[in-house]
Amino acid sequence: MSAEANKKLLRGIFEEMARGNTRPMGDAMADDFRWVFPGNWSWAGTWEPKKTVLEGLLRPLMAQFAEYRSEAHHILAEGDRVIVQARADAVTHRGDRYDQNYCFIYRVAEGRLTEVIEYCDTALVERVLDHPTQN
Predict the structure, then answer these.
(1) Is 134 among the domain residues?
(2) Residue 81, in any domain of the structure
(3) Total structural domains within the chain
(4) pTM for the full model?
(5) Domain assignment of residue 133, yes or no
(6) CA-based, 20 to 30 A from 80: which of 7, 25, 100, 106?
(7) How far is CA 57 from CA 12, 20, 46, 76, 100, in A?
(8) Taking a C-beta distance cutoff of 8 angstroms, is the pair 60, 132 a contact?
(9) pLDDT of residue 94
(10) CA dihedral (83, 89, 51, 9) positive or negative
(11) Domain that includes residue 80, residue range
(12) What is the predicted pLDDT for the residue at 135?
């Protein structure tokens, strides 16, 4: 697929997430998808494959939110990489605000997401969210 097609895929996913619908993200993942948190903090590491990402990371994570929306502000693509700068507007069930800023670097192959590297406000994550059980 072209860089423009890859960009369109992520634009569609984030349009849905801006409405509160996170399902298209999981639907677009390849079976061998992996989610990477770089750095030296408690969440740093790699979650893979798709089943582990969905069941071990995303479902427990999203279960912490009473409301969650994420809107893309910039989407840039080159080759198989798509960079998305986004902002979350969210509230946990405990009532904590989770207004997160993200920079995601996605890899797309044959119309499927195969990897994301997530950069975010790690201090906010540590302060507000419960860590899912690491794979």
Answers:
(1) no
(2) yes
(3) 1
(4) 0.95
(5) no
(6) 100
(7) 22, 18, 10, 26, 17
(8) yes
(9) 97
(10) negative
(11) 3-128
(12) 46
Round to whole Å and give the CA distance between 36 and 46: 4
Q: CA–CA separation, 29 vs 49, rounded Å?
A: 10
- Whether residue 66 lies inside any domain: the answer is yes
pLDDT digits (tens, 9 = 90+) for 75-133: 999 999 999 999 999 999 999 999 999 999 999 999 999 999 999 999 999 999 999 87
Cα–Cα nearest to 108, from 24, 27, 14, 28 = 28
pLDDT digits (tens, 9 = 90+) for 41-57: 999 999 999 999 999 99
> What CATH number should be reported for the domain holding residue 102?
3.10.450.50
CA 104 from chain centre, in angstroms, equals 7
Residue 26: CB partners within 8 Å, gap ≥ 6? 50, 54, 58
DSSP string, 28-76: HEEEEEEEEE-SSSTT-EEE-SHHHIIIIIIHHHHTTEEEEEEEEEEEE
In the sheet that holds 101-109, the strands lie side by side as 45-47, 29-37, 112-120, 101-109, 81-92, 65-78
Coil vs helix vs strand at 79: coil
